[in-house]
Design goal:
CATH topology of the largest domain: Rossmann fold
Structural class: alpha/beta
CATH class of the largest domain: Alpha Beta
Strand order of the largest sheet: 3-2-1-4-5-6-7-8
Length: about 425
């Protein structure tokens, strides 16, 4: 395939996608409005963290197949992979999609294909993109082809899942879908399922909403368990041995650009019908405050009135630097509202994102009464309890992700609590 691609948006999805196509022999031009990011990419430096991205970026640039700049270029295919966040009122902010579409209008020519990869509310292609693309003067579906193919990858495993996951493709007509299938067959080994654009948009939102509702159920179970003295982690583990049960894990909140955002798209579209979706989203949004309150309660249970916490984890997921919609930041805000002293630490976050953040674990642990684990980074699981105990004032752990080896910490003299425990339960793993 000798097509040239122009990828709009070089973030967590756009850059790996551009690199993947470039390393499969296509000429790719990447565009982003972030001048710093463009400069770093041109210098073969990463502005995001993703396993395997550095070597693949080096290969793409060294081969001459990938160029990047602050503006689009003419191409055969345009892929839009820009953010689609929510506003403060929980409505979809589609300005990034609109502006990205507007940016390619001067470069689009007859026979081109435009693909939206961003996760968006149903009817975004129909109501937002197509009216803008009509400004090209081309007949949509005959001279200009348009599809939606939502990304379905998880941070940390993007390249593996780009290749192996099934792909959903929804064109505005049959030819749009056919051209899109042909393009993604460049590297996709998973099955490709074809539908229309609006259904493809709905599919991605459904997937993330399902997960959000399941997590909300787990979080409700955790809060109930705290009241009746049950270890929710053990209860969920045993329940999941049932062949038709698959309960997700509770936690201090839901983060990331997808699960924490997409359900609001459905609530906005049909607020009178999306009642369970709304309740689940509100439940998960309330977990950071619940987590902060538990931290305060545990300190008081241990006889500590003016305690200090070392909060470990600012990214929304393990082993990445992605802080989009991270519940950790909300936990910190609620701790401040409660008047609790704390220091935050995350080895994957290279820039200071909070005034109480430190770049050193031991500095965070210094004179702390409690270690609070909010992100299950591998490096946290490998912490030596004896080492941090030397720095701490009191030996308490609140493991909101249930990721630590409990017996190891208890053997070092720590009182270990998890989200979903009503109290410190020695010996429960």
């Amino acid at each position: 395939m000798s097509k040239k691609l122009c990828v709009i948006g070089l973030g967590y999805i756009g850059l790996p996608t551009a690199v993947m196509f470039a390393n499969h022999g296509l000429k790719v031009h990447g565009m982003d409005v972030n001048e710093k990011a463009v400069g770093m990419i041109n210098n073969k430096e990463l502005h995001i963290e993703e396993n395997g991205l550095q070597e693949r970026l080096n290969q793409a640039i060294d081969s001459g197949n990938l160029t990047v700049s602050l503006s689009p270029e003419e191409a055969d295919v345009f892929i839009i992979a820009v953010p689609s966040p929510i506003n403060d009122d929980k409505t979809a902010n589609l300005e990034y999609v609109r502006k990205a579409t507007q940016s390619i209008v001067p470069f689009v020519k007859k026979g081109n294909l435009v693909i939206l990869e961003s996760t968006v509310p149903p009817r975004t292609v129909e109501d937002v993109m197509l009216p803008v693309l009509k400004e090209t003067g081309l007949n949509l579906g005959e001279e200009l082809f348009v599809s939606h193919s939502p990304e379905r990858v998880i941070p940390g495993k993007v390249f593996e899942e780009l290749v192996n996951n099934d792909r959903i493709i929804g064109g505005i007509n049959e030819e749009s879908s056919r051209l899109t299938v042909e393009l993604y067959r460049t590297f996709v080994k998973g099955e490709i399922h074809v539908t229309n654009a609006t259904t493809a948009e709905m599919v991605k939102v459904i997937e993330n909403t399902y997960r959000d509702i399941n997590i909300a159920f787990a979080n409700e179970l955790a809060k109930i368990s705290e009241k009746i003295n049950v270890d929710v982690w053990e209860a969920i583990k045993l329940a999941n041995y049932h062949p038709r049960v698959n309960i997700h894990q509770p936690g201090p909140g839901v983060g990331g650009h997808c699960i924490a955002v997409d359900p609001w798209f459905l609530v906005e579209l049909q607020p009178d019908l999306a009642k369970m979706i709304h309740l689940a989203r509100s439940t998960n949004d309330g977990m950071p405050e619940h987590t902060a309150n538990r931290i305060q309660e545990i300190l008081k249970e241990q006889g500590i009135q003016q305690g200090r916490a070392a909060v470990l984890g600012l990214a929304f997921k393990a082993n990445i630097d992605d802080m989009r919609e991270s519940p950790s930041m909300d936990v910190l805000r609620h701790l401040e509202e409660l008047g609790l002293d704390f220091t935050a630490y995350d080895p994957h976050i290279k820039e200071i994102k909070h005034p109480r953040q430190t770049q050193e674990l031991m500095e965070a642990a210094d004179h702390a009464d409690m270690l609070v684990v909010l992100t299950d980074h591998t490096v946290f699981k490998e912490i030596n309890p004896e080492t941090v105990a030397e720095k701490m004032r009191s030996k308490i752990v609140f493991d909101a992700k249930n990721c630590l080896d409990r017996s190891k910490w208890e053997n070092a003299g720590f009182a270990v609590y998890t989200l979903g425990d009503s109290k410190h339960i020695p010996g429960v793993q």
